[in-house]
Amino acid sequence: HMHTIGKKEFWDVLPKVMYALDEPSGDASAVAMYFLAAEASRYVKVVLSGEGADELFGGYNIYREPLALQKVAWIPEKIRRAVSRQAKKLPDRRGKSFLIRAGQRVEERFIGNAHIFTDEERRELLKIRPTRRPVRSFCERLMKKPPGFRPGENAEHRLEILAGRGYFAETDRMSMAHSLEVRVPFLDRDVFEAARTLPPEAKFAHGKTKYLFRKVAREYIPEDTAARKKLGFPVPVRVWLRDDDWYGRVKKMFQSPISRQYFHTEKLTALLEEHHAGKKDNSRKIWTVLAFLFWYQEYFDE
Q: How confident is the model at residue 56 (pLDDT cuts 50, 70, 90)?
């Protein structure tokens, strides 16, 4: 079954999505999940999902990072952190991200995967006083002593599990919004316990992600499917925000009374203008604020 979602249909459903999420989310793929659940619920009441396979069996290249960074682990941390600070000042080019992340601790790198605004940007955008706690502090405790993890468990495995914690909740909420039950066999405890014993080379080998998982999958599904390159679940928000209709709608929301209550709206408008002109990709930043405004309207605006 195929259903193509246009930008108007996507926009119109945002209030319902933000209501179903319970809390604002900077992940636009949650909206795509909402549509997917809606379509599936037209035909069935229960579905099986592959949630957890990427997190447990090495489905994302970012999980290979601890292995790559081992090559520079011999360099003293103070030097690596100094190089990281200087690398942030460099123009965007190949290798910049590696230099930055080589000087970061694992909890800082974990946050970096979904870090939308810097501390400085938060201070510039928000009218309310941001918390003094750095963003990384929210996951330091989990990264250093995660519940259920064994002492000495490797960094890439901790990244894999923690990365999925928030996304799984979104999937459940989007499916429940349509009374669709999603069962997740890869999140079975026995599967989890088996996956945590796998060495890194069982997950990443010969330049491929999910190596062992793909090898087993070949016994049950066609080769072209088992070997398919990893594809995320993106939505074209970046493109739509450069279209005049979305640009106008977002600008109106950015200049609304709710927005003026919490944000320096001239800064938000500047982000939007810069993106609309094609000077910079600010889509994740714009979407994050937009999601908050839709969520606030649903729960607090009279």
A: confident
